[in-house]
From TrEMBL:
Keywords: ATP-binding, Ligase, Magnesium, Metal-binding, Nucleotide-binding. It comes from Sphingobium phenoxybenzoativorans. The keyword Nucleus does not apply. This is 5-formyltetrahydrofolate cyclo-ligase. The lineage of its organism: Bacteria, Pseudomonadati, Pseudomonadota, Alphaproteobacteria, Sphingomonadales. GO terms for molecular function: 5-formyltetrahydrofolate cyclo-ligase activity; ATP binding; metal ion binding. Belongs to the 5-formyltetrahydrofolate cyclo-ligase family. It is an enzyme of class 6 (ligase).
């Protein structure tokens, strides 16, 4: 399916993801994203600080990666939405830390010692394609975060059903370097 209207694709993607997650066997859902595939672990081997996110609704349950990342010695952080203009910072986080409500149903750690700079940003996706284009919620938060942290690895995480033949990309959209689904790890192809 090729759609050029991002909002129309977002609507379709949300429903498609919702239906897929509802159809998953509960055991399959609980096991999804529990382990780090070897290529993913190699890709982030040099990353000291890895940004995750608190999933909303039926987004890929990325926090399941936290234990494996912590076992690798990674410092974890979560985003905190600052304003409605796409401002977002990353705050250090441990699994036992209390989370506080943020805008748009988000949750984040207490600001504490202030923001950290991630070496790898794992972002939620509504859709993706094999050219590493991503479709987000449309607020530009991750696009701005990628631009503010240009050296950080850009990794998307999604359910496999969220793959499309082509995702429309604007000139300001930075492509991902890898995508992790419950069935595969897709890396950017470099020529």
């Amino acid at each position: 399916m090729i759609l050029t209207d991002k909002q129309a694709l977002r609507d379709i993607a949300r429903q498609r993801r919702r239906n897929f997650v509802a159809s998953l066997d509960p055991l399959a859902h609980r096991l999804a994203f529990k382990a780090l595939p070897s290529p993913f672990a190699r890709m982030i081997a040099d990353a000291e600080t890895v940004a995750l996110y608190v999933p909303l609704d039926d987004e890929a349950p990325v926090l399941r990666l936290a234990a494996a990342l912590t076992d690798m010695g990674k410092t974890l952080c979560l985003p905190r939405v600052i304003d409605r203009l796409g401002g977002m910072e990353f705050l250090r986080w441990r699994k036992e830390d209390q989370l506080y409500p943020g805008p748009f149903g988000t949750s984040h750690p207490e600001p504490g010692i202030g923001p950290v700079a991630p070496d790898a940003i794992i972002a939620p996706l509504l859709g993706f394609d094999r050219r590493m284009n991503r479709l987000g919620q449309g607020g530009g938060y991750y696009d701005r975060a990628f631009a503010r942290h240009p050296e950080a690895l850009r990794i998307g995480i999604a359910w496999s059903i969220q793959e499309y033949e082509e995702v429309p990309a604007d000139v300001w959209d930075l492509p991902l370097q890898a995508i992790l689904t419950e069935v595969e790890f897709i890396e950017e192809v470099t020529a």
